Amino acid sequence: MYATPRRDACVLALAGLRVAANRYAMARDDDDFRLRPGRIRDRGGARIGGRRVSGGGGRSCSFNGQVQQAIRRAGGNPSRLSDAGKGGGRFNERGRGASVAAALKDRKPWSRDAGIRTRSRRVAVKARVVKLNPQSGALRGRQFVSAKAVDAHLRYLQRDGVTRDGERGQVYSASQDVEDGRAFVERGREDRHQFRFIVSAEEGVDLSDHRATTRDLMKQMETDLGTRLDWIAVDHHNTGHPHTHIIVRGVTDDGKTLNIAGDYIAYGIRERASEVVTRELGRQTEQEVSRGLEREVEADRFTRLDRMLLAEQRSRNEFADLRPDRDVLESLRQNRALLIQRARKLERMGLAAEVEPGRWTVSPETGSVLRELGERGDIIKTMHRALDREGLAHARSIAGYVLHREEMTEQIVGRVLDKGLAGDEMGERVRLVVDGVDGRVHHLEMDPGRAEDIQRGMIVAVGPGEAGPRASDRNILAVAGTEGIYRPATHLEQAVGTVERLGGDPAAYVRSHVRRLEALRRAGHVERIDADHWRIPADLADRGQAYDLARDRAAGLVTVLSPSGLDQQVGYDGATWLDRELASRQRTILADDGFGRDVTAALARRRRWLAEKGYATDVGDGRIRISRDLVQRLAARDVERTGRVLAAERGRAWQPAMPGTHVAGTLVGSTQLASGRFAMIDDGLGFSLVPWRPALEQHVGRMVSGVALPGGDVSWSLGRRRGLGL
């Protein structure tokens, strides 16, 4: 689309030169004529469309500038124009394989042998170029994928249940049937990018050896690209169409950056894969193609028949004419009956209408609607497989399936049935299938960082987070006063006494407020005047609350309520999510069916267990009284038992953190208990277990300090730097 305006401008320029040459030749003898084109100079600006084109400040544009302006008026982008030979691909303008792609693009799939029309096998190829590290001088942004996301993507490809036998996926390479995927990822840490492909043959179930097929394809790609490729692959059989995930490093065999032409990615790989599959399965006859199209007549997705109908409608600028006496393409004539059946299907869906016998009008939104419907169907199949794996498919109605594709507007509590890559598994977004306590089954998508620690079987809460303004926003408003000017230096003076009494670092305390202001400034809610002055609006609390809700709804805030299932919690000698529900004054609303009914039964069993062990009192009539400090008592017992076990394993003394005592040492890591996640602090002589906080994540392996508070929590002083760090 971008090359057309430029080509038109060049054609006009050449036409002008030709006219001038003809006039010159008429005035002089033809033998004496010699055209000597020189530099194109502007003579006061050109007129395009009746208007004079000039540069800024009243200066006339150059010829190139005039052309660029004309291109912009036509809706093009002159900075993205491709010269001849560069290729017009979707991924990059030039690279290896461009000449091969040009030869393969015009190849006709159909041929006639002994009077029988046959075609090559259809293979679908999805591709993505993943940017890992920015080029020199470029800044890392959202378009670059982190190392953690790359690791997570490989783990998801190797997850359980993807092979024919329902086993864990196995990584292989050109020479090894069992390849070390981790080593492959480590080799590519410093690569600028990597390529990801999904190759799916239409008759993939008939292939005898997917690994051999993949290796043949990659050998052909190496020949086309003129370099050996460092790649791994994983075969998946967990869908109706077996497919192969291929990851290729973005380097050549001599260590240089590998750039593949966009046309080769878009067309060349697909044609080469088709060649490989066709050699194994043979060419398709018209009867085989027709049978494949018959299966698409009632499909709730965008099909080849839909493409034929839309193409026929565009060619006639009004209708898709399927009357038998009309002169149409051979493909339409051969599949006329199927096209009419598909048109009637679209009519029932409200996407087509028959204006007169044999003439149909198809909605231009057909493609987008059917693609969305197909994606929804794939998601429902994923949810059904997750339920079936747990033996719950018959107990959960499809009417209770809920798909959350955009924002999270409600909080969902339930058990994680499945976790994997969202969509076509080419990106990093993660999907969760949650069996909710509301009796419904939810499909959620979110950024990988939000679900990094989430595993199947956990009980989680997913939603927009807690409502209400942040304490930091209220503190900033209090310091800003009526003038609406917040000064970190003033805040530091006011906070020194209070924060130090609690054992905290006043400078770190104020820096946390400045970081909050920086986040709100990027969102346009506050203004930074200078290093020590911020302009604060009077409604900062409301603005901050809206900002947090919008961010959490879009990303999906995930909280682990329990790392173990209901059966494990019922008889566990420690604090569990069931105990917190029993002791809470605002209990989670439970439905009378689905997972909500399971939770209700588990709560009753937990009550009886607590009474038997003496943690609760049986008052008769089936009623059991729960003490207010039940959760604290059970959590303390869980931490003490775990601490003694770890002390025996590590050969270090376990030191419980008593309220008011100083906690300091190296943050070794964390351990997940039924009572929650706890940080392990090692002071060189012993270690302590204290409740984990997300702010500790970036301090693993560093020295931390804080003061233990009543209830087991710790007031942390993270970062002992002097000053405000502005």
Compile the SSE list and pairings:
Blueprint: H1 3-27, E1 46-48, E2 51-53, H2 63-73, H3 98-105, E3 110-113, E4 116-119, E5 123-131, H4 147-157, E6 171-172, H5 181-187, E7 193-201, H6 210-225, E8 231-236, E9 243-249, H7 262-281, E10 284-285, H8 286-294, H9 304-316, E11 320-321, H10 330-334, H11 336-348, E12 352-356, E13 359-362, H12 366-389, E14 401-404, E15 412-421, E16 430-436, E17 441-446, E18 459-463, H13 471-480, E19 485-486, H14 488-501, H15 506-522, E20 527-530, E21 533-535, H16 540-555, E22 557-562, H17 566-570, H18 577-583, H19 594-612, E23 616-620, E24 623-626, H20 630-650, E25 653-654, E26 662-673, E27 676-682, E28 686-691, E29 703-708, E30 714-716
Task: Give descriptors for this structure.
726 residues, alpha+beta, BirA Bifunctional Protein, domain 2, Arc Repressor Mutant, subunit A, 7 domains, 6-stranded mixed sheet, 21% strand
The gist of it:
The protein is α+β, with helices and mostly antiparallel strands and 726 residues long. The protein has 20 helices and 30 strands.
Range of strand content: 15-25%
CATH class of the largest domain: Alpha Beta
The number of distinct structural domains comes to: 7
> How are the strands of the largest sheet arranged?
14-17-16-15-18-22
Nearest-integer average pLDDT: 81
Structural notes for this entry:
The protein is of the alpha+beta class. It has seven domains: 78 residues, no CATH class; 186 residues, BirA Bifunctional Protein, domain 2; 69 residues, Arc Repressor Mutant, subunit A (Orthogonal Bundle); 92 residues, RNA polymerase II/Efflux pump adaptor protein, barrel-sandwich hybrid domain (OB fold (Dihydrolipoamide Acetyltransferase, E2P)); 81 residues, Arc Repressor Mutant, subunit A, CATH 1.10.10; 67 residues, no CATH class; 69 residues, Beta Barrel (OB fold (Dihydrolipoamide Acetyltransferase, E2P)), CATH 2.40.50. Helices cover 37% and strands 21% of the residues. The strands form eight sheets. It has a six-stranded mixed β-sheet with strand order 14-17-16-15-18-22. The chain has a six-stranded mixed β-sheet with strand order 25-28-27-26-29-30, covered by helices on one side. A five-stranded antiparallel β-sheet has the order 5-7-9-8-6, covered by helices on one side. Strand 1 and strand 2 form a beta hairpin. The chain is globular, with a radius of gyration of 33 Å. The two termini are 48 Å apart. The relative contact order is 0.06. The N terminus and C terminus are likely disordered.
